[in-house]
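Checklist before submission:
- one chain only
- standard amino acids only
- sequence pasted in full

Submission:
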Amino acid sequence: MHIAINQAQIQVDGAYLKLQNAEAMASHLEIQLGIDKQWEIGSEPYSQFRQEASLLTYRTALDDLERLVVMHLFELLKLSLSGTGYKLHQQISKALQRRLEAIQTALNRYNMQAAALSHSDIHTLDWTKPAHREAMVKYFKLKCAQEEIQHLNVEICRVRTAIRDKEFTVNAAIDSLLISNEPVRLELQRQWCRHAAVNAVHLCRLDRIMSQESFSGKRDLGTRLKDMSSCEIPEIICTADHQEQFEQRMTALTMLRSDEQSGGDILEHEKQGQDIYDDP
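Returned file contents:
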């Protein structure tokens, strides 16, 4: 009993000596750093440092848990390898048992440190409210729609210009074959009628878009630029007759729009568009 009391007294004296040394070291550092006011419990610096210390302890516990789990997985992999002897198998099994106990201890330490952290309540933030999230989604959809409108304004003009240029180019090719090669001209005209029927439907759709009051694009046709690459583009021969034919067919195509708005069949529109282009 007397020996136990002496050992306890020695431990108390040693702990008190360590406390005195720590206080002396802290006082020396305060003088060197010019700290006039010490931290008080509940002050902002004290709370911030305590939060950082708790976070450091939490991360340390998490690292230990991850390390033990990875080691356990490697030992399980070694246990399943072929050629493992009985003795080695028993040693690995005992090591796995000890590892499981260590993992359980590390998991308890991690849960304790995780519970000690003071997490902020994210449910009070604005982005967690359904109405705010829905408004944010609609806002970004509106921004994307505005960008898409600008792209479509350019593409609509390009498509109409491409259809017009194709019309002039093919008609010029058909006219050039009128005397030199009549069978080829008839076949080319037949193939072009199908293509022109599809273009007629596209032009009806584009005409509906351009007729809207909110349309902000260019209603005039563009001008095709020659490609500067090695591939040569056939020159577009836009004669007065071709221009007149194109304008007449565009006028006829606008008449299809009223029937299309009434819910007509798309195949019927293609047939009507092909009838428009049947006349050479």
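Reviewer check: Residues 227-239, 260-267, 276-280 have pLDDT under 50 and may be disordered.
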